[in-house]
Design a protein that fits this description.
This protein has 782 residues and is α/β, with parallel strands linked by helices. It has helices at residues 2-30, 33-36, 42-46, 58-81, 94-105, 121-131, 139-150, 152-185, 194-214, 227-249, 260-269, 271-280, 288-292, 299-326, 348-379, 402-419, 422-450, 456-478, 486-515, 520-525, 551-559, 614-631, 708-723, 742-757; strands spanning 389-390, 399-400, 533-542, 562-575, 586-590, 598-606, 649-651, 662-667, 680-684, 694-701, 725-735, 773-781.
């Protein structure tokens, strides 16, 4: 028996390692495409104008030393060994760090948060992990936490900091495809004359970029299996060429890895060497992807791929280029310092093709990452609602946003045509990359104190060490403001303005809803019929409120005194966790006594969750309400307090509760008894007087027994479902109230209203059918 157990464990261990290695291989195409193509333009950007190398090779050795130690300290030490540990239940990126801080310090920017959200398993998972570590919260961490919770200004600064990092990631989504593709295509200049290559380089780059963005709506799952082999071949190619150049041109190039050459480089070149750091910085473009794409893979797989293949290949590639340049001092133009000049003549065309493919893969990864981070911003109320298309039903996280895709394409073509050279594109991309890293460093220092509960001196040491390195590169990039670095600043400013205006307007709109919500006492005073005619069907009233009756309801009833027999106040909200499990999806509660047939349903999604379509959502919603009625039938008290709507019950979807009620919908024909349902009771609706499109039935478990009132409630819910579902949406017009400042009037009346009119509706994620939608207009004076 012990032998069988040991063999089983060995088999599981082998399977787990096989899975990890498979993920490590797949991560090459998704995570490391951008980072692996950096050798195409690093030396070319570094030696552009600020410095030139002389016969002594001190500049070349100094640049190589900077590249080596930058790659070692930032991607390897900072990201692989430290930042990857700060995952948000397996998810990474700027918003993952912000989400962690939101939960630990209660600085959530979402206004409709609830105490019940803290009971989510993913909400508490990280807390439990920390609690079991045995460390106690340091006094400084407690005081910092209370300070953040008390001061709204600090909370806003933290949000703006996270948004700045997000905006720079979007800017990188514009600049990285332009830089990677343009640098890859520039290899044709070694095979064509100077007069002709400039007529090929730009049109070819633009054509590739247009094709890249035009194919986004097909998704990457159909060609995604090619991504990893392309990057793998590219890494093997550049490392092989690097080894060849080292052996053939300068076997002693390894001496340049000494940090002493960095000192000699800066001492000799002085200001020019400092300014050239903006080019050296490009060797770590794409490092943030290791953390941002963590949700698709695992920490171990990303670490294995980087340390065993990506890092050694890049070091060999840079050493090989430096070895070639150290013996070729006659430089005709800055093109001759590019990557392709160190490639043997016979291999240039095959390498050019592989480089273009690798550049496309790297660009694809950053574009997909941009889609993902915009979805996260939209989920957390910091970006206008956009159309999100899930391009794969099997692969998690593969999405396409049409509006953002075409905006990125136009901006990408604009910077490519406007700059037309690697130097200025590199200056622009470098500033975007280093700004994201600085934001990550700042947020990580707070995570170390608040989430990991470590010493404040450890956080200060982290900020001081990595912040100093990144601040040095940031200053070198910022000094080139007029040489291209203004582009990411301008892009980030525009996107940050959009995010801040949308967030401010949404917050003011929610505050108006809270201040003008209808009293439940008023509702109860109307009686079970609510003083109106109740017609067949289910009315879903969409609201942002998690408690109380929205003003839109009273506005509707006043103008049209008729409503559905079953009313559901539906709130679809995001919570600061990456995923909410199906078993915790719904919060259901009664509003008023049972005979009123009023329910509140709060549907909770994580910022990376996929929203279901309308048909599946309706089934899950009706089934969850039915399960709430059944489970609460023995606990229900008719003499409950009037504010009972604050008491909500967690109900999962039908698929997550095998022992719960199941919903069956069929055409209006004779319903046959299913085999295997002898232990279950069926609640069927009586033959309707009018011909309906479908028949509905609930299959209820035998135990526990439900009372008569609950059966009647289920019966009425079933009849309402058969009659159909109507969505009642508020079409709000937001205006700044009288007496507001000119700035507020401009932001609300023009900025927010423009974004609201040109964005998707609040329930667009559910693809609500237009035939079942009823909009109620209302003016919000905020």
């Amino acid at each position: 028996m012990d032998l069988e157990t040991g063999a089983h464990r060995n088999h599981l261990k082998k399977e787990s390692w096989r899975t990890v290695l498979t993920l490590a291989y797949q991560s090459l195409g998704v995570v490391y495409g951008d980072l692996s193509t950096s050798p195409l333009y690093v030396y070319k950007s570094t030696f552009a104008e600020d410095i030139t190398h002389s016969e002594t090779n001190e500049e070349i050795f100094g640049v190589l030393s900077f590249v080596f130690w930058t790659l070692t300290l930032v991607p390897l030490l900072k990201y692989v060994f430290i930042v990857l540990r700060a995952d948000d239940n397996g998810e990474g990126g700027t918003f993952a760090l912000y989400s962690l801080l939101c939960r630990h310090a209660r600085v959530n920017a979402l206004p409709n948060r609830q105490v019940a959200d803290e009971d989510l398993s993913e909400y508490k998972k990280k807390d439990n992990l920390i609690a079991t570590s045995g460390s106690k919260t340091p006094s400084f961490g407690s005081s910092l936490k209370s300070t953040l919770e008390k001061h709204r200004v600090l909370q806003r600064i933290l949000l703006v900091l996270a948004l700045i990092g997000t905006c720079m990631v979007i800017g990188d989504g514009v600049l990285t495809p332009a830089l990677s593709v343009f640098s890859a295509v520039s290899g044709v200049e070694l095979s064509l004359s100077k007069e002709h290559h400039k007529y090929v380089e730009l049109p070819a780059s633009c054509a590739i970029l247009i094709a890249l963005f035009a194919l986004q709506h097909y998704g990457t799952h159909r060609v995604g299996f090619l991504f990893a082999p392309v990057v793998l071949i590219w890494l093997l190619c550049i490392s092989g060429i690097g080894i060849y150049n080292i052996v053939h041109w300068n076997p002693h190039i390894y001496k340049a890895l000494s940090p002493y050459y960095m000192y000699k480089f800066l001492k000799k070149t002085q200001k020019g060497g400092w300014m050239s750091l903006g080019g050296i910085l490009l060797c770590i473009t794409g490092s943030e992807a290791m953390f941002a794409d963590l949700g698709h893979f695992s920490q171990l797989s990303i670490k294995i791929a980087f340390t065993s293949l990506v890092y050694p290949s890049l070091i060999l590639a840079y050493m090989g280029q430096a070895a070639y340049l150290s013996t070729h001092h006659v430089i005709e133009s800055d093109y001759q310092i590019g990557f392709y000049v160190s490639v043997p003549d016979k291999l240039r065309w095959p390498v050019l093709v592989i480089a273009i493919l690798a550049a496309v893969v790297g660009s694809q990864a950053i574009i997909t990452g941009t889609f993902s981070i915009i979805k996260q911003c939209s989920s957390l109320g910091c970006f206008p609602k956009v159309k999100i298309v899930h391009t794969s039903s099997k692969v998690h996280g593969q999405i396409y946003i049409p509006e953002i895709n075409w905006t990125l394409m136009l901006l990408c073509l604009a910077v490519t045509i406007g700059f037309r050279d690697t130097k200025r594109l590199g200056n622009a991309s470098g500033l975007a990359v280093i700004t994201v890293m600085l934001v990550t460093t700042c947020l990580m220092s707070l995570v170390i104190v608040l989430c990991w509960e470590k010493s404040v001196f450890l956080a200060i040491g982290f900020v001081f060490f990595f912040g100093t390195i990144e601040a040095l590169y940031f200053s070198a990039s910022l000094i080139k403001f007029l040489q291209g670095a203004w582009v990411p600043i301008a892009l980030a400013f525009i996107f940050l303005l959009i995010m801040c205006v949308w967030h401010y307007g949404s917050l003011k709109k929610y505050e108006f809803d809270v201040q003008n919500k209808v009293s439940i006492n008023w509702l109860l005073s109307l009686g079970p019929s609510l003083g109106i005619v109740r017609v067949r069907g289910i009315g879903l009233i969409h609201t942002e409120l998690v408690s109380g009756i929205p003003a839109i309801f009273s506005h509707f009833v006043t103008n049209l005194p008729a409503f559905h027999q079953v009313l559901v106040f539906l709130c679809i909200k995001s919570v600061p966790v990456p995923h909410v499990g199906p078993e915790e999806r719904f919060l259901i509660g009664h509003i008023g006594p049972r005979e009123y047939r009023l329910y509140r349903c709060i549907v909770r999604y994580g910022y990376r969750d996929v929203h279901k379509d309308d048909t599946e959502f309706e089934k899950d919603l009706v089934c969850s309400i039915a399960e709430f009625i059944r489970a609460g039938s023995t606990e229900f008290n008719a003499d409950m307090p009037k504010e009972e709507d604050d008491k909500m019950t967690v109900v999962g979807t039908c698929s997550s509760n095998a022992a719960g009620i199941r919903l069956r919908e069929e055409d209006n024909e004779e319903i046959e008894q299913d085999p295997g349902t002898s232990e279950q009771r069926e609640i069927k609706s009586p033959p309707p007087a009018m011909q309906l499109k479908k028949r509905v039935r609930f299959i209820v478990p035998e135990s526990p027994e439900i009372d008569k009132a609950a059966r009647e409630e289920l019966q009425e819910l079933m009849e309402a479902r058969e009659a159909g579902v109507a969505y009642i949406l508020g079409n709000s017009y937001v205006r700044a109230k009288q007496g507001s400042s000119m700035l507020k009037k401009f932001v609300i009346n023009y900025g927010y209203e423009f974004l609201r009119r040109n964005s998707r509706g609040p329930t667009h994620a559910l693809t609500v059918p237009h035939a079942s939608t009823l909009e109620v207009g209302m003016i919000y004076n905020v």
